[in-house]
Design a protein that fits this description.
Largest sheet: 8 strands, mixed
Helix content: 40-55%
Number of helices: 18
Number of strands: 14
Strand content: 5-15%
Length: 616
């Protein structure tokens, strides 16, 4: 079954995205326009991305002392993607967008993630521009965001520092006002930034005319000291090259310098950088006559001290993007191992009775897909990857609901997204990585060689468990914040949708047992949540946040699969049989795992948390 076949089913039969055309924002669209977008992206991914996936893995970015060198294929892919209009697909017609539903945009981007995830498809650029559209001034939107949507410029997010990865309260980059008239710059209150940022994806390259960095930094207090904690963090636009109010380059290089390239196990086609801001390599003159030109020029976004809140607009969007990238890498490995299993002869059928298993060496070898254990590994991959894809598209439709639904429906979508975002990011990052591991296993010894693509898929996917927050961070966000917010209303909304699915499935004879299993699993998760917080001690409640995240994620995927299965009611087909088998696999082999995870959560087990450092 092709990716396109799967997308068509999920979009048109399961999610019924054509209903969105009844809303004013999407009224100009039809299934034909949606299909045209999917066709275009599938073609570009096939022609400009997929043939070069191995190339960008082996020809890593390099710095020649002047600029970062990337393969020509990466330049061609970026141009083709920008020309397709996908960078501004969801934006208003007035600024060159298509007013495309985000659900369709997300589906269209799956082709690029599956073809070559590290060549990029504009995730950071779009997220950067969307943040500015939400929180920037009118001129910041015009000068920076619109040039990013057009593909003329690209964007980054600069959070981590060498000494502060996920602990953003410890960032040390400083931003000081640039002269007495710093607030009068039309592009925004102007500051000078000094500091270092680490792990900045796409932080330096020649793919676009300019790079727009969104940088978290702290403005010193009256005593010259940085304000502790996240409340002191502000957000700044720091262009690589200085621009004027018309969006034209001034010919002056901002003081943002590449300090080094990081070389990771995967995503090797993407430059990953250490950037120095304000080290003095480039002097930038402004109207501040007291300045010696040192420091990177940055323009404040919004209000001082609210930078992390603004950045979460981009981070939450990126978390769904990371989940989708992980999903598609898993899907790529699944398709590769399925093809291999259909063509690789190995072993013979077993025969004999209960006392002895016999293999007849005189018989011809069978293809490995005929072995039960190979089918198990293929079905596991299918259940992980297609289930994750359905989850990501469900979340994408919630985004459309939040932006275009009625007030009540929009608010419900907002809360559901709050609860589901940690799952949408973390679950595919773990289980689609496991799918890649199974794809290697199906290939046997060949799976570890570069003659086959599955080892690269695993290396690329391993990064997604770190991207945009580790499992530990996502688990604490879910159990420590999301299930508690607004007195648990988000979880209650999600539980109501699960129960509606279970009620619908209960009436179908082949799904009745699974409906009962989903209801039971939901009750177990709710009980574990209550038990975790029964003492009111965060140290005890959050000691097993990751097992809680895993169990909650499996519950969500079981619900997704049951809802998908209930939609497979049309004329019998191989595709329908495959989906139902993947759902059955998930209920038989995966959902039972939640008992072990929830046991330590409910008991507030402190085995890990209380072990002394010396005992390791």
């Amino acid at each position: 079954m092709s990716l396109r076949t799967t997308l068509d089913f999920l979009l048109y039969e399961w999610l019924d995205v054509n209903q969105l055309q009844q809303r004013e924002r999407f009224a100009d669209h039809s299934q034909e326009t949606f299909d045209a977008v999917l066709d275009t992206c599938e073609r570009i991914a096939r022609e400009k991305y997929a043939p070069f996936n191995r190339l960008v893995d082996t020809e890593e970015p390099r710095f020649d002392g002047e600029k970062v060198i990337l393969p020509q294929a990466t330049h061609d892919a970026q141009k083709a993607y920008a020309a397709s209009g996908m960078l501004s697909a969801a934006q208003d017609y007035e600024i060159g967008g298509m007013q495309l539903p985000y659900t369709v945009e997300a589906a269209a981007n799956t082709f690029f993630a599956m073809a070559s995830v590290s060549m990029g498809s504009g995730l950071l650029t779009v997220g950067n521009a969307n943040l500015l559209m939400a929180h920037g001034s009118e001129l910041q939107k015009k000068v920076f965001a619109l040039n990013e949507f057009s593909g003329r410029w690209s964007g980054t997010m600069c959070l981590s520092e060498p000494q502060a990865g996920s602990s953003l309260s410890d960032v040390m980059t400083r931003a000081t006002p640039d002269g007495a008239a710093f607030q009068q710059d039309p592009l925004g209150a102007r500051y000078r930034l000094k500091g270092n940022k680490m792990w900045i994806s796409a932080g330096e390259h020649e793919l676009t005319e300019n790079i727009i960095h969104l940088v978290l930094a702290k403005i010193p207090g009256p005593d010259g000291k940085l304000i502790p904690g996240v409340k002191g963090i502000s957000l700044f636009i720091v262009p690589k090259k200085m621009v004027n109010t018309e969006g034209q380059l001034t010919g002056v290089r901002n003081d943002v310098a590449l300090a080094g390239l990081n070389h990771k196990c995967g995503w090797r086609g993407t430059t990953n950088t250490l950037l120095n801001f304000g080290e003095g390599k480039f002097k930038v003159s402004t109207d501040n006559t007291d300045s010696d030109g040192s420091g990177a020029v940055g323009y404040l976004v919004g209000e001082p001290g609210r930078g992390l809140g603004y950045m979460f607009h981009m981070m939450n969007e990126a978390r769904i993007g990371v989940g989708l990238a992980a999903t598609m890498l898993g899907m790529a490995g699944y398709e590769a191992s399925l093809e291999y299993a259909k063509n690789r002869p190995q072993g013979r059928p077993v025969a004999g009775g209960s006392q002895k298993v016999v293999k007849d060496a005189a018989q011809a070898q069978v293809r490995i897909i005929e072995h039960a254990d190979i089918k198990r590994m293929l079905l596991a991959q299918k259940s992980y990857c297609e289930g994750a894809l359905a989850l990501e598209l469900y979340c994408a439709k919630l985004v459309d609901e939040q932006h275009t639904g009625t007030a009540v429906n929009a608010d419900e979508a907002r809360l559901l997204l709050e609860v589901l975002t940690p799952i949408a990011k973390s679950w595919p990052s773990e289980w689609c990585l496991e799918a890649n591991s199974l794809a290697i296993q199906i290939h046997g010894g060949y799976g570890y060689t570069r003659d086959f693509p599955v080892e690269q898929y695993w290396r690329d996917n391993r990064l997604n468990m770190i991207h945009e927050g580790t499992h530990g961070i996502q688990g604490m966000d879910l159990l420590g914040r999301k299930v508690l917010m607004e007195e648990g209303r988000g979880v209650k909304l999600l539980a109501a949708r699960m129960m509606a699915t279970a009620q619908k499935a209960q009436a179908l004879s082949d799904l009745a047992d699974d409906a009962k299993a989903l209801t039971s699993a939901l009750q177990k998760v709710i009980q574990a949540t209550q038990s975790a917080w029964s003492t009111g001690q965060p140290q005890e409640a959050l000691a097993n946040a990751v097992p809680y995240l895993q169990a909650f994620g499996h519950l969500v995927l079981a619900w997704i699969w049951l809802d998908v299965s209930a939609s497979c009611r049309g004329e019998a087909s191989a595709q329908q049989t495959g989906r139902q088998a993947a759902a059955k696999y998930f209920y038989r082999y995966e959902l039972p795992k939640i008992d072990a995870w929830l046991n330590v959560v409910s008991n507030r087990d402190m085995t890990c948390a209380n072990l002394s450092e010396e005992a390791f």
